[in-house]
Give the backbone structure.
Amino acid sequence: MNLLRVHDAGKAYNRYASEWHRIARWFGATFQPLEQHWVLRHIRFDLAAGESLGIVGRNGAGKSTLLKMITGTLPPSEGTIQVAGRVAAILELGMGFNPEFSGRRNARHVLELMGMGRARIDQALPGIAAFADIGDYFDQPVRTYSTGMQARVAFAAATAIKPDLLIVDEVLSVGDAHFQAKCFERIARYREQGMALILVTHSVADVVAHCDRALLLRDGRLVEDGAPVHVTNLYLDDLFGRASGTARPARATDGESPATMGEDGRDLFHTRPGYRKEEHRWGQGGAVILDYRIVAEGEPYPPRIESGAETEFLFKVRFDADCEAVMPGLLIKTIEGIFLYGTNAFSASGGRAPVIAVCSGDILVFRFALSLALNEGHYLVSFGVSSGDPARTLIPLERRYDSVIITVGRSVPFWGIADLRGTFDVWERLSHD
Amino acid sequence: MERLSGLFTSAWRFRSYIAGAIANVFLARFSRSRLGAAWIILNPLAMVAIYALVLSSVLAARMQGIDTPFAYAIYLTAGIAAWALFTDILTRSLTLFIDNGNLLKKVVFPRISLPLIVAGVALIDNLLLLVAIFLIFGLIGHWPGAQIIWLPPLVLLTLGMALALGIILGCLNVFVRDIAQVVPIALQFGFWLTPIVYQAEILPPQLRVLLSYNPLFPLVTAYQDVLVFDRVPRLDLIVILALAVAALLGLALFTFRRASSEMVDVL
């Protein structure tokens, strides 16, 4: 018997000529809605006890509507949703907490809202206090809490009594790493006892780490149900610009060998996967960066680059003026804007770069290759080309800052950003005798 | 009918929640105040005491059928006891579902709990007001008489009428938000169209016809009969009113059930 069965479920929002028409319908009138807006359609999946499912999709794909339908606050407009057991949803940690009340009183209220009786609540409270682990603060008003402390009490209360299905929506990102680990420990223990989990998050890493299966929603449709790595790759495509609905071209059928760019002189930069329209484009002119190509381990525009993989960054530049020496460059930043690495032709060749002279109308493709020894996450790439002598002044002709986003994946994480390639062994064992 | 009974059994299952939420309203009201829970009775006591003092010395109007300088004060507070309960529930219910929109969107619980919590809070407030009335006027020699036994059913009738209207208007207001603007204005009219600060007898006959359409008129009059004049209220009117309230409550539950499934769509 499946714990959750979503059978061809959909949700439509009806718009009426007047809200009074809607009201009149409750009393038997037969006004038709002006417009039916379907936000979800034909959603069909099952979830077994103990299973864990990740749901990903861009904002507006219908994730929260689906969650509300599974939770039960929103009835589906078509199809059915059956849940055999108690659903607990951690949708917003600390929602409805009254800041004037103590953590204890608020926790009590959370359990009351689940329909628990006084005896059951009294029995659960010591466990909540222990799990939240905030000491005397538990009996202080919540307004004196930090966000993290509030999250601790909220999670402790919401999961104090094992539900049959737990829905976690993007909430465990608050709170410190230690507490997050503790939350996932509790979730893992409950899952061993048969609890199913639905995790909705933008963190691809969490889906891969904690889910057996994942769903991808796109424009209200369920487009993929499968292994987390596969589904999250498709999701990253959705996020970072690969045309929706089209499959990623296989390497061999790409038409070009992975590391070459077409003859084309058109500006194709903004059509490439990973392009960010929020880029900062500047420079005095004289050159246009037309296109770029990122290749990792033979795969062009990979949705996820394995940490440490040899990665090539190619970009095509058209020069509109004669120039004695031009200098291409590359920058990599974290998504927060921390400058990680920047290089140019001069620095990347150890100061021995040939002088690149160009004439107006020339189109050149430059290539940087480096190993992306970074931790899991998203990174911003900038391309640029300047003129002049690197030893003296460089005049930026065209810079496309933060114009591309790339994703690095890593199975065994470390702490921090840069992979300094640490190794470890037991060097010596000094015995006692 | 089966679903209707489900409404009540689920509310009963969530009685801890309802009781807890009612307690929280009072705790929140007095948190961080020095006297804390004492205010819960000090407030109505102060209000009634001021009425008694001011109206007996400054505006000591004589009233037929009762011979004390406090007559008008007693008359006024009797009417206010009924009116306060009615408007308290009605105005709170009006924006109830909107105020709790986030909760309704995210948590599954019997939604009927929300109006029940409002009714519970208003009822406690009202009972304390009645206690204050008994105490203050008792101290000055006007203890309630034997007809006080009629008060509990009158309170229940007021509560039922307000709750039914509150649920209906609260549900409609989720969809048509103008209702929350119109109702307070209608209540202003209602206050002056109900003989609370005046006696019905002083109205010219043309206006008195209007009163007969006011469902609060028989109710307030019954309060005044019991609290001021210590006489049995007009039972025929009470029975008709009780039937009307029962019908109204039925309509309210029907509306609530219909609205409840679509409410989250627009919140």
Summary: The longest helix of chain B spans residues 235-266. The interface with chain A takes residues 13-14, 16-17, 20-21, 24, 27-28, 31-32, 102-109, 172, 175-176, 254-255, 258-259, 261-262, 264-265 of chain B (CB under 8 Å).
